[in-house]
Design a protein that fits this description.
The complex is a heterohexamer, with three copies of chain A and three copies of chain B.
Chain A (H helix, E strand, L loop, with lengths): L1 E7 L4 H10 L5 E9 L5 E5 L2 E5 L2 E10 L4 H12 L8 E6 L2 E4 L11
Antiparallel strand pairs in A: 1-5, 1-6, 2-5, 3-4
Helix pairs in contact in A: 1-2
Chain B lengths: L1 H24 L6 H12 L9 H27 L7 H28 L22 E3 L6 E3 H19 L9 H24 L10 H10 L2 H5 L7 H19 L15 H21 L6 H29 L4 H15 L8 H26 L7 H19 L10 E2 L4 E2 L4 H33 L6 H6 L1 H6 L7
Antiparallel strand pairs in B: 1-2, 3-4
The chains are: A alpha+beta, B mainly alpha.
The structure holds adenosine-5'-diphosphate (ADP) (3 copies).
């Protein structure tokens, strides 16, 4: 099993979620994060104090999937999350050793 | 930016220059308020009227209450309903619009609205408030009763400055800050000032000594005043006027990016609730202060403002509960605002049971205004300025003609010549009210449309897509509302 | 939902129908306020009293200040103390309860509380405010001094509508919205209105022309008024009454799920602070407005309201610092509220040093009320309504009897027959106060218990466990307080 | 903690004991307010002056407005600007300082500031407000016009209690709570009370019956009053006084850990905006209430307070837009506060166009105060108390001397002997103003420095580094502002 | 070493923490997340605007543990986090390549 | 490739970010988390209610890197995040199976 963790632009969340649903993903977990990368931030000014804000609001999306869905999932995210502008984000893929569904105790692929 | 500042500067220069130029040819009209004082002296060697300190106090309080409506009231009410990334832009727009127009009011607004001119606009006698001192007096609605003119100017300033600020709700979350300012100067000058003059300008009660005098005095009054339209505290001048401008603005500016697809839920409803509550509290100044005296009628206006709001809040709660299954807090406070809007023109004319009924009705009608009607119009009036102020204002203007009837517990209309309540003809009164509504709708729509187009063609109305995505707080104002 | 709406509708119908029915048989009593005016006419052909505009202004301001206590004051004070998921439900409950009861006040509340009936409840003469116009007058506590009746009605409306809203704090975070509304209608009708009549109804000062006249007039007054219980601004009627209802409600409704195990820390203490501050500001209207005139005694009530609050805030801070090692902001503002509660019945009767001492005492006693006593009772009175309002109210009622003594800097009690300050007997005064306390405790407890049981058996008091977990904002009102 | 409580207790004991001891030797001076009443009786068998209820109402309202400035106004304004972890500490400091000093005002502050003593400090005649009853009267600025003394005491209480609270902004986020309290008691006693006496104490207008009487009366007045320094509502006593103390405090206490390296962005600017708005609203009480009567001059003070704020808000917005490319909301409201500060000493003396100009200037000057000057000074005055209140106060004091000139639309200075406006000499008036500025700067700086050093040597000024990191809310007060 | 990441219902956090303590877990890290899955959301209504909220508040709990504790830990979470209703959440298990304790520089099992 | 996830004290974020930049890290993602461990919490008191707060605010920092940067990155974090007091946090290292840059579709090392 694989665990895909994607950093995307926040306003793309709904689109990505629907694209994932289209390739059969039924569950996912979302976290508000702040990203630092090539995309430049902005400057904020509070009276005399000037702060450069490098961290931009991003959304992290975690999906645990079956190995054979990996390509579909990556493709779906890539397509739906892209705007073509710097800062579109990254997809990270991890091996997932085990999954358990708490409610039923099922594990492995069934638990996804 | 440079260019924008230049435009703003130019507009200001215009504000300063125009009157100076005009002064030469301007006719030297006796102002309304002067008339009052003069009347006293002319008729007999009577003691000059002296303001009652209770009245003065009440007007001072009323005025500061309306300031509180503008800041923080309106800002919070609106601000809580936008997304967090645009919070400060809304606070900024309402505040700076209020302050800018407050300045313009002192420079030329008061003179154009409240000195004698023609039926549509006043004159230039009091540019820069010239001639007004701490001893100057303004008339009220009672013969021989006066108040210091400075507080009258200040009270009316708050009306003139908050009304345009209401429009901000229509194009929130996407408009350029510079465009807001320029549009507001235009709309204030060409829509608010004339409407205020048309509805409220008159020679004052002391001029109405006989039928002939009344006729002569009447001829100097504003267009809608002459038509006999009743507007106790600004249903027409404030709410219909701003509501219609909002509708036009929402159409011309266009929808927010993602409207209808992305979630645009209010980011902080408790703030909206605080704003609505402070609007309610301040509205007592707005409505009751419009009586200009702390009399029994003032207390009637007060209890009506209280009861209509209670009724509208409760009515919206019940209708939403019945139709959607759950009564929302945003609904309840929307009802409260609708109740305040509907009773604004009526508060000194109708009885308490009339205000309960008007409140109940507006709760239902404005509920439809922000649901059915809004979807039918398909316009992104972001914070429902038209649905609440426009619709509620129109309903209020018309119902004032109904419930002001003494037969329905209203006070009727005072005849200053006979010093009694006049015969009440409901049909003709409702027609007079309709004149007010119609004039406000057309005038405001036309001015708004032209002003917006002008702004669009010169400095542009909207921020770039990227700036809209990022949020106006950062992109237009360089700051963020919340940090950990 | 359908069912609930039906119940609410029925209660309203009842509200409308009952009085209409009763009217036939109701005795036609001269109302208290009419008595004032009548008194004037009867005794001699004197000019009818005219309201002073300063008084009218002060009552207008006082009333809007109490509106501000209800919205946003109380809502924020309570709302900040609940968890974020229940924020809107608290705002909604306090607001809608206030508005609903405001309507009922105009329909039948004012008549039942403030017209002559028996010693426990008034009559039906002013249902729907019939007969009241902008020219109607209400008496004050000075002979020959009147105010417009509308503002008196509005002022008392705010008391009647905010008092039940106080109880919301006891069962916050778990009660059904419909249950709140129905309970409130019952409690308002059967506990607030009688208590207000018992404590405050009297024939007015002008009736006290001679010892015999005084006796006759006294016999028409409310039960506790006759007992001589002093309650300047509502210690008994408002705070003990609501505080005891809160305790009973917390017991009957039961504890929140997870109470004592899960963290239920206030979700936004700054909001609670804003609420408390606005309560303080508004309380000047509440307490000083109760004087009904802008006199020297009004200013005494003012400075007492200021000093008692300062003292209680400081006292709570010190005791908490000493006992827990750190003084908390929630503690300081809890002290402020306690100070306001304690001085409410006393503010026009005690001297400034008396108010400092009363404030200092209540800071310590209510600190114990929300710590020691609360744990001893083992009740989940979520926002400590009983610990602050109940305990503070009882302390205030009793201490009023002590510090009103002229020997302790108080004003004593005015004798309207001799027009001098009467002899002061502290023991008998404290006994009179105890009568007030006892009556309020028993009456409110009984009414509350029955009303809650009725609601429980019909529509049920609590939401489901799942709804409580999810939070009332989403489950009862379909909205969420905060979004990004 | 134990130790700190002991210190606080001792200071209080001192507060109580000192006067009692002093009383023996204290000269029995007729107080200013007594003088007024006496004057009336002495000159002829005229009716004793009776307070106008309109005036009394206005002073009541003014006082509660200043309470609102303190809580929640100032707390929110400051609190929104600190980091979330210090929010409650700021709310706590401003609230408890206000309450504590309110108590001390009643105990000895009022007596020391407003009874006759020498040119620098008053006497002990009214310790514990002894002798003041609901019938006591205080003089105003008009001959024969009085108000109840209790409301005068309460009004002045709010000034005395909020002024020190302003200083909190200078050392926010790092100071010990106990240090705040002790410092405030010292500064209040040794800087605020003398300054108030020096600027405001005089025998009242009724003493000025002839040139000789005026001279005799003048000799009893405060030092700066004698110098002829004008300060309508507290520019010197409040703003320069507190602003300079803030600068000294920021230096002595030292910078926050991480200052200049870590982000210290305001955690909640909407709260700051609410605070600023409530300060504005309350400031009408502050400024206009200082007129003590609801007269035409009161309305002048009102409109000036309105217009100067509008102008300063707009000016700051424009200058920031021009210089930094974006106009910020924090800038706009900083401008508003600066406008309020600058007009405070001037509001009853200058004309509306003068106030527009003063507002415009202060917007630019204070913009520099929190940018250029602040960086030049290199001091961590966390919330720019000096940059806004200090700089704005100095500018206001000086410009008052300019724009009070009748030739520039000002009212000039009233001559109570001739009962006309006196000749106006701008140069000598500006010099008088400079005396006020200089005295306030030096006096406050010296007192602040000594008081801070004393506190530092005894209980210490700052919390530990770890506590500062954790935030004062948790470490000093055991609570957290926000939870989910 | 293993890294266990569990998505649970927020109000279960305290129970789970205590259950983990009982099996010897001494440290953990918690994140507020939003979950999308079989558990249905709710509808929110703001005047005329209706929004379907599919993302529900969840709590993510990360625990790094020794391999031999894995079963205990999974069992502890499963038991303490279960309510039996849909939406109880999932347990994800990853292999953990390395751990370092910043304060001491210790690494591996000692750093847990 | 490796994925390094570090839990640090919030006020250390800027220092750590600069230390990472110094060793060539160009992107990272940050999450606000709450940590439970040896570092003791504090007690909060709200009127009569006393709550022990064991969860302390921490910042999680995720960096995906090339294998050969691992030691540098760990060393950089260790050094810049340490205060020497309990609660300085942990560094967790995972194997990263794949990375994709959404904007360009690049994957593997190039996508970092
Ligand atoms: N090496 C990395 N490790 C972890 N997160 C990263 C890394 N590089 C980028 N990110 C995340 O991806 C986001 C987008 O990266 P950025 O370099 O701005 O644009 P792009 O993905 O278009 O190259 C960043 O804001 C950050 O959250
Ligand atoms: N494939 C998945 N990948 C990541 N997170 C998931 C996945 N499926 C479910 N989740 C998380 O688990 C939570 C519970 O899942 P849900 O399907 O609602 O119920 P259950 O766990 O009872 O089957 C979701 O809210 C989501 O946070
Ligand atoms: N086994 C663990 N799994 C996940 N996170 C942990 C673990 N142990 C500690 N942490 C995280 O590291 C932080 C610091 O740990 P702590 O034990 O307080 O101090 P130290 O790292 O100095 O030993 C904790 O607050 C928690 O967020």
């Amino acid at each position: 099993m694989k665990f895909v963790s994607a950093i995307i632009k926040p306003f793309k969340l709904d689109e990505v979620r629907m694209a994932l649903a289209a390739v059969g993903v039924q569950g996912l977990t979302v976290t508000d994060v702040k990203g630092f990368g090539r995309q430049k931030g902005h400057t904020e000014l509070y009276r005399g104090a000037e702060y450069v804000v490098d961290f931009l609001p991003k959304t992290k999306l975690d999906v645990a999937i079956d190995d054979d869905r990996l390509d579909d999932v990556i493709a779906a995210i890539e397509k739906s999350a892209a705007t073509g502008k710097i800062g579109d984000g990254k997809i990270f893929v991890f091996d997932l050793a085990e999954v358990v569904r708490i409610r039923t105790g099922e594990s492995g692929t069934q638990a996804l | 930016m440079q260019r924008i500042l230049a435009v703003v500067a130019m507009l200001f220069a215009f504000g300063f220059a125009l009157p100076a130029w005009a002064e030469g040819g301007g006719e030297v009209a006796a102002s309304a308020v002067a008339a009052v004082a003069d009347g006293g002296t002319a008729n007999a060697v009577v003691a000059a009227p002296v303001p009652d300190k209770g009245d003065t106090t009440w007007l001072i309080v009323s005025t500061l209450l309306v300031v509180m409506m503008a800041a923080p009231g309106l800002g919070l009410f609106y601000g809580g309903m936008v997304r967090a990334k645009n919070m400060l832009s809304v606070l900024m727009q309402t505040l700076v619009v209020f302050c800018m127009l407050g300045i313009l009011w002192a420079i030329y607004g008061y003179s154009l609205a409240f000195t004698e001119g023609n039926a549509f606009i006043g004159g230039f006698d009091k540019l820069f408030l010239q001639g007004v001192t701490a001893d100057s007096l303004a008339g009220t609605f009672s013969k021989g009763v006066v108040v210091p003119e400075f507080i009258y100017i200040a009270f009316q300033l708050t009306f003139a400055a908050i009304t345009p600020a209401l429009i901000v709700g229509a194009f929130a979350e996407r408009i350029k800050f510079s465009a807001v300012l320029v549009f507001m100067v235009l709309w204030f000058t060409f829509s608010y000032l004339p409407m205020a003059h048309m509805v409220w300008f008159w020679a004052g009660p002391d001029a109405y000594t006989s039928a002939e005098a009344a006729e002569a005095a009447g001829a100097t009054a504003g267009f809608l005043f002459q038509k006999g339209a009743l507007d106790f505290a600004g249903g027409t001048v404030v709410h219909i006027n701003a509501g219609v401008a909002a509708l036009v603005a929402a159409i011309v500016v266009g929808k927010r990016i993602g409207y209808g697809r992305e979630t645009m839920a209010p980011h902080n409803l408790p703030m909206t609730m605080v704003g609505a509550s402070l609007l309610w509290v301040g509205w007592f100044g707005f409505n009751v202060g419009s009586n200009m005296e702390a009399t029994g009628v003032a207390t009637l206006a007060f209890i009506n403002t209280l009861l209509a709001t209670c009724a509208a809040t409760f009515a919206w709660t019940l209708i939403e509960w019945a139709r959607k299954g759950k009564p929302s807090m945003l609904g309840a406070i929307s009802g409260a605002i609708a109740g305040l809007v509907v009773i604004t023109p009526a508060c000194g004319f109708v009885g308490p049971m009339g205000s309960l009924i008007m409140g109940g009705l507006v709760g239902v009608v404005c509920y439809w205004g922000v649901n059915g009607l809004k979807h039918a119009l398909g316009v992104d009036d972001s914070l429902d300025v038209f649905g609440v102020h426009g619709i509620g204002g129109i309903l209020g203007a018309l119902l004032t003609g109904v419930f002001a009837a003494p037969s329905l517990g209203g006070t009727g209309v005072w005849d200053y010549v006979t010093d009694t309540v006049a015969e009440y003809d409901m049909v003709s009164q409702v027609i007079a009210q309709a004149w007010g509504v119609g004039t406000a709708v057309v005038w405001s729509a036309v001015v708004s449309f032209i002003a917006l187009k002008l702004v669009d063609l010169t400095i542009g109305l909207r921020v770039s897509e990227e700036e809209e995505r990022e949020g106006l707080d950062v992109s237009s104002h360089g700051e963020t509302a919340y940090h950990a």
